[in-house]
Amino acid sequence: MDSIARDWREAELNEIDRALCAHADQLTRAPQEMGPQHVETLRAVGLNDRAIHDATQIIAFFNYINRVADALGVVPEAFTRRWGECDEQN
Fold it and tell me: Which of 9, 39, 40, 80 has the highest CB neighbour count under 10 A?
């Protein structure tokens, strides 16, 4: 998980996970550029329409809730750590 959090492009991912990360990255950084070709890319790696829909809904929800939290100045709980800061025991 840490390698994905650092840079998913460098992580050892299978084809489906790599396509989902690319989809999440695109939807997060440039949603206005999304189009049918992005759905086709996910279909090409074996995802069906239900899986594409569900993944897109989850990605969009996290983008939404993070923007709300940022806008309201919500501070993470004290027990929450950033990726890479976890103990070796976890």
Answer: 39
